[in-house]
Amino acid sequence: MTTEEEKALTEILEEHLNEEDLTLIYTPDSDDPPSPPSRNPHRKNRRWRQLNLKIKIIAGAVLLGLSAAAAASYYHLQYQNIETKATPQTESASASVTPAPAAPTATSAPAAPTVTPTAMPTSTPTPPALPREWNLILVNPWNPLPEDFTAELQTVENGHSVDARIAVYLENMLADARTQGLSPMICSSYRTMEKQQTLYANKVNEYLSQGYTQENAESEAGKWVAVPGTSEHQTGLAVDLVSSSYQILDQKQEKTPEQKWLMENSYKYGFILRYPNNKREITGIYYEPWHYRYVGYKTAKEIYEKGLCYEEYLETLK
Ligand SMILES: [Zn+2]
């Protein structure tokens, strides 16, 4: 501090502070202590200035206090903001951490890179949602029935039963065929899971007895008798119809007048020939010129007119 600055400061202090203040704040190192007697003439004026200064100090202190409080609340708010901003991050961090424990299985197998293509929606050909309508349910070797599937049945003739909703169409179709002098008959209709298991096991045994291995016997049997859970007969929407004069389930069935009529007219009642010739690769089942499936008139008509199998028809809906 220079001499001029010291002098100026002394003047300011003397101007504004009383003796007590000065002794507290200002410790003179020179021989010019403020002499109380010399101040006597200005005592009254000084007192007023002292009061004024005290007010200023108090006001300053209040202002300082207020600013400190404001600053404190500002920082408090800031801190809160940081906290609130940080909270979701912490949550998301913990959320992103959560899958991590599952990762070791993927990590142990070097499957991590394969995850990325799966996550890309464009690169993965996702199969379209199958029709939800009850009459359009797709059941084939690749689309088994839901495990909780149930059918509400109605008995039609000769103890056979089908889905109650299709009974009238089946009865009308058979009745109309009979008015044409034909004699169609139902030889298979709704099957329980147990029934399907028995039929399938019988077919497998047939191949085993011919010397097939278990694997080959099951594979071959599945082409003739649907693997349990994948048979349309379990839906109640399918029937096997044969000529009463020829009740063998083989390709000769197509030569009977009953099949010829059914193949041409079944669509009018909402039925399709479900396993046409030369479509085994698509349907998974060999040609069955006796298996009819209810899909409803509109769909059956389109399938009949376009010469499609059911899987091909569903493709057209994509
Ligand atoms: Zn059948």
Summary of the model, kept short:
This protein has 318 residues and is α+β, with helices and mostly antiparallel strands.
What average pLDDT do the residues reach?
75
Summarize the main sheet: 4 strands, antiparallel
Described by the principal axes of the CA atoms, the overall outline is extended
Number of DSSP strand runs: 6
**Poorly predicted regions:** 16-41, 70-122
**Radius of gyration from the alpha-carbon trace, in angstroms:** 48 Å
Question: Could you spell the SSE succession in H and E letters?
Answer: HHHHHHEEHEHHEHEHEHH
Give the count of structural domains.
2
Provide the descriptors you would attach to this structure in a database record.
Muramoyl-pentapeptide Carboxypeptidase, domain 2, 13 helices
What does this 3D model show about the protein?
With 318 residues, the chain is an alpha+beta fold. It has 2 domains: 3-30 and 38-89; 134-191 and 231-316, Muramoyl-pentapeptide Carboxypeptidase, domain 2, CATH 3.30.1380. The protein is 53% helix and 8% strand. The protein is built from 13 helices and 6 strands. Strands 3-4-6-5 form a 4-stranded antiparallel sheet. Strands 1-2 form a two-stranded antiparallel sheet. α8 packs across α9. The radius of gyration is 48 Å and the shape is extended. Bound molecules: zinc ion. Zinc ion (ZN) is lined by residues 188, 233, 238, 240, 291.
